[in-house]
Amino acid sequence: MNRRCFIKSATGAAGSLVLGVYLSKPGALASEAVTEKSPIWEGYSPWLVVAVTPENRIIIKGFKQEIGQGSSTGAAMIFADELGADWDLVSIESGTYDSRRRAETAGKGWGDWVGGSSAIRYAWGPLREAGAAIREMLILAAARQWGIAALDCQIEKSFVIGPAGQRGALGEFATLASEIDVPQTVPLKPDSELKIIGKSYANLYQEKHVTGSLEYTINLDLPDMVHAAIARCPVFMGKVKSFDASKARSMPGVIDVFEIPEFDGGSFGNYARAGVAVVADSTWRAFKARDALEIEWDLGPNRDGSFDTIRKEIEEMDSGAMESIVDAGDVDALRNAEGLSLFEASYTSHLQEHGLMEPLGAVAHHHDDLMEVWAPIQFADRAAASVEQRTGIPQEKIIIHGRPAGGSFGRRYNCDYIHEVSFLAMKIDRPVKLTWTHEDGAQMGNYHPFTHFKMKAFLEDGKRPIGMNVDQFKMTSERWWGFSNKYDVPNFRVRGARLRRIVDLGPWRSVAEHLNTFSLECFIDELAHFSGIDPMDYREMYMKNPAAEEDANWGLLVGRAMRVLREVRVLSEWDSVTLPEGKGRGVAIGRFNNTLVAEVVTVDTRGGKLVVEKVDCVSDSGKILNPQMASGQLEGGILWGLTAVIHGGIEVRDGRVVESNYHDRPLMRFDESPHMNIRMLESDGEVGGFGESVVPAAGPALLNAYYDATGKRIRSIPMKWDEVI
Amino acid sequence: MKRVALHASHSIAHVSRRTGCLVVLAKDRVRDETDSSKTRREGSMPVYELTINGSVHQVDVDAGTPLLWVLRDTLKLTGTKYGCGKGLCGVCTVHANGMAVRSCQMPVEGAAAMEIATVEGVSENGLHPAQEAWMEENVSQCGYCQSGQIMNAISLLEMNSDPSKAEIDSTMRGNLCRCGTYPRIEKAIIRAAKKMRGGQS
Question: What is the per-residue DSSP string for A704-720?
Fold first, then answer.
């Protein structure tokens, strides 16, 4: 992967050095002066803009969207370290995405895309190169000014230091540096000289968090802004038959009421439901007037959607009609083979919702042929494409202002709310803020795909899994189809069948890994118990051999899997502590990209209540950029994974989502949070991602623990719907 | 929590741990239906008088508007957040006469009788010890729930300077966090309690 970047520099307002960092642009770029009249960021379409100000501050603008994963702080750390900046003088700002920027980052899937726990991993190279190049430009500028050799100078804590005690703030050399050609290749600092990377610095947005002043979209207030709420069809893909807005229109502050047609963006998670929009002079009034609408719905093709329709689809599915996803060896031949035991089990992962604390919403203003959108998006490109799709406004006229999100976890990646706000902005001549209620979010979600797994294993000598068949029934598109196996099963087949989409679907923290790890790690656990072998031993015995893996990356991953399994065994005192009756523990290994995580969950079921007492967790991610932020992601991800099992789950009944708020779609609360022992291993290789890494293993480890405690095998996430499908 | 013997002229009282003052809501300050000093009718629009962070505001909103929306949309104090609207998540937590309440469940009429403090108010003279503790423990991830968490924690610590784990649990279980920062919130509360006991600002 080409991770080189190019830099374009200029003198910004009042003597700042403004550098645009491009992911790739053919040819080197010369410095270009920007007149004092131009705003500091004007005229640039780079991936990242860095300013060195006369006050010696470093401002980094436009790194990816902040959704709570802390990657903008991480990016700043990488850049600042290579440059030699004083961390206390570094600050960050959200980016503005216009078409020129998108031309720059388009096709580089990792350019503006927030997801896949990948931000730091992909940005590592470009950020270090940018930091190094800018370091050299400033050193050259200082050396010229002092009349000495650049070789003798260095940058420390935002000052250029000369050999004879010369000392100058970076800000002093900004203007001079902008006249220096951007160097094309600069050596990066050796690891021994890194001072910021690897340290537990605080999230740069922290003070705004504790004072409640971070610029969430829902807090945006623009002059002349109006507020909108939409009553959407309660059934996916239904339509408005008729509506009576007379009561709503008569309510105070109501400005307009109109129908909003459904819009199918053509991919899962990009469908905006049909409904009726209310525009009012405050959020509360918009909500109240919306409640006063009388709407008759044509509930559409999914009016019957329910557990029953799903169950029927699965039962009636012909295995011959299933699609082949993985087919190694010959599973069918094993059916007639001698001396093999057959073990079967089925698992169901139900629909899950994101449960975001900042409700969905966005602000848009259509003016002077431009469409400006302010939104907590996860992918600027996709948001802009959605605006164009919905309105026909060309890309050059679309500006997306990224705002930090009150959580996203995949939900805001989809653009149904962008389609909606674009439509509203075309109808209304003023800035319009669309706010979803919490209930809207719960009931009109883009859910984690419903998946049912039928698993079959053929065991040699009653223990070794030499054959495995996985049939998965998934309410999804092909995106979440794949299923990889860390265990050495020479005859391994995965087949898939798509279930009818009765609600819309989208990415949910750890996506397909969550689904596959659940079924595989519970199934392996059951095989271990069936064989009479300790679940840790069993996993170790039948894990793939890292050295034998032809695929170097897969070998690396399997090696890490083994390592974290062995470490969590020690950390959890698996062999040294015996638990009393009613308590149990279970293990599972999960991954996301190249980060492997093993977890042991300890539960207490005495007194008839399930208490998650402790989670022991070991990760191996390669390098770690910021240990406290990484462990924060692990702590939060553990709670995410456990919540889905204990409290989560979305039911569709007569086409409507049943759950609506935190009373019937609860989250784990403060007093349910287990004690967590977390150990993060570092190993050779790239810096690894953390956001999703710990989620996949949490659920199966919990279910395995529950079995250990009670002898009852629950094969469903959430637990409460065991055997419903 | 120290309680004073309630007199007929008092409705609720506690000692503020922060200031050491007895905070009392005197009955004659409770809005009385016949008391015209708190509501005036100009034409047919009610105007409510609210005391927010020590300042008095006249707000022109519909009867029954939750305090949350008065704060956010009318007064532009967006530190207090909308999360669930049903009193289930705690992100809208403010102080009413020093007690943590869910502003999404408090109609403006009820708020008019009280001294309301929001997160903007607690940091008026630099960060509150709880906010400092939150930062020292690196609590926040997306940050959205944290102002509500902090307001609830401050209310607990002003009444109970050395809460037990069980007391922290039973108070803080009222505040949800989707990012899962509970382990660090607990550490921050213990740290904040120490600071407040030690008299550090």
Answer: HHHHHHHS----EESGG
